[in-house]
Amino acid sequence: MRTHYRVVIVGAGTGGISVAARLLREKHHLRDEVLLIDPATTHYYQPLWTLVGAGIVKKEESARTMDSLIPDGATWLQDHVTTFDPENNQVETSSHGKIQYDFLVVSPGIEIDWGRVKGLKESLGSKGVCSNYSYEHVDYTWDTLEKLTGGTALFTHPASPVKCGGAPQKIMYLAEEYLTKTGVRDSSRVVFGSANPAIFDVTKYRDALEKVLERKQIETHFRVNLTEIKADEKIAVFENLDSGESFEMSYDMIHVTPPMQAPAFIRNSSLAESGGWVDVDKHTLQHKQFKNVFGLGDCTNLPTSKTGAAIRKQAPVVVRNVLDVMYGHLPTASYDGYSSCPIVTGYGSLILAEFDYDKVPQESMPFNQAKERRSMYILKKDFLPIMYWNGMLKGTM
Questions:
Q1: 22, 138, 302, 388: which has the fewest Cβ within 10 Å?
Q2: Helices (runs of H) and strands (runs of E) counted in the chain
Q3: CATH number corresponding to 4-110+262-335
Q4: What is the mean pLDDT of residues 353-371?
């Protein structure tokens, strides 16, 4: 095993593989000089999990073996990074010791903290407690929804950053439509308990989604955070984030979006800012202190939504700027905070939210994307996965 590479990339998820593929396409002399470090054997296209939870696709469609996706010319080290040592241009791994780099790209994603909600870890996948954020348990969302004959279907959004901020509400809209289809909607309550102050950050899409909530008669509670699940009693405990008071809500089914945080090996490193995220310049994606280090994706402190669509725009910026610095120049590429959230509002309808750092819509279609459309649903379900596997991860889009 070599102990020095020109470019070391931590994380072979969406960001890491995209950057590796682009680097190797652009600079053939980097062949065998790019190392991807990731312990996972399977790579998941997680946006499909919303549709799995609603019974539309099989979860196996979201999975590929990691070795089938590593770009030609890159080396994959199946190992954990335990420590960053940017002062000495090296990372430490659990099984292969220290590895030196000239340039480091950090993109290991986000860590789910199931333990932060009391009772969640023990009850997940049983007693009506569901989450589409777990590959292991995503089927249980559909099992539970299919068997629901009325009562309260409760959906939550935590007081932490989450990957794909729209996902907690997408499954709720699908569930509401399914309950209508099966004739039990009139005997059901659909409730959203969210730590956010509103249904969406961007005014144009918030206005549209408020109409969806009204049409579907979904009950909303904002600025509330799930703190405990009493699974045997089917009771959820929330904290009101404004008053600090706790209150309980009974449910028959609860879909939990768990709290998330930066991975521990980043939080405890000199790459992190006070919140634990990789501290990068929001335009160049270069680390604020270590100029040969770059970060992208969910692990960073970029003030935009943590989505694969954001990474699609970040990856070429990282590649351009790594190469600029490699050849003795200042970074020239700039990221504007673009992110996208395809918000499924039903079986066959979708609002495609696209926006930048300033929460200004940056729409790519020649029509009003705040309108629910079947064409955009088909784009998400059928075309975006193809673009992901065959374009984005190959470094061509």
A1: 388
A2: 10, 21
A3: 3.50.50.60
A4: 97
pLDDT of residue 339: 97
User: Does 341 participate in catalysis according to the annotation?
Assistant: yes
Q: pLDDT digit string (tens) for 150-209?
A: 999 999 999 999 999 999 999 999 999 999 999 999 999 999 999 999 999 999 999 999
**Selected catalytic residue, list 35, 36, 99, 164:** 164
> Where are the chain's structural domains?
4-110+262-335, 114-259
State residue 23's pLDDT score.
98
The reply to whether 299 belongs to the active site is no
Rounded distance between C-alpha atoms, residue 145 and residue 125, angstroms: 12
pTM of the model: 0.97
d(CA 82, CA 93): 5
Second CATH level (architecture) for the domain 114-259? 3-Layer(bba) Sandwich (3.50)
Q: Tell me the sheet residues that pair with 154.
A: 191, 254
What's the order of all strands across the beta sheet hosting 188-194?
Answer: 129-130, 253-255, 151-157, 188-194, 219-222
**Type of residue found at 249:** M
Q: From the candidates 299, 310, 341, 384, give the one annotated as an active-site residue.
A: 341
The two three-digit tokens of residue 31, written as one number: 């062949």
pLDDT band at 11 (very low <50, low <70, confident <90, very high): very high
Question: What band does 1 get if pLDDT is binned at 50, 70 and 90?
Answer: confident
The crossing angle, in degrees rounded to 10, of helices 167-181 and 138-147 is 30
DSSP notation for 290-330: -TTEEE-GGGB--SS-B-HHHHHHHHHHHHHHHHHHHTT--
* H or E stretch covering 10: strand 4-10
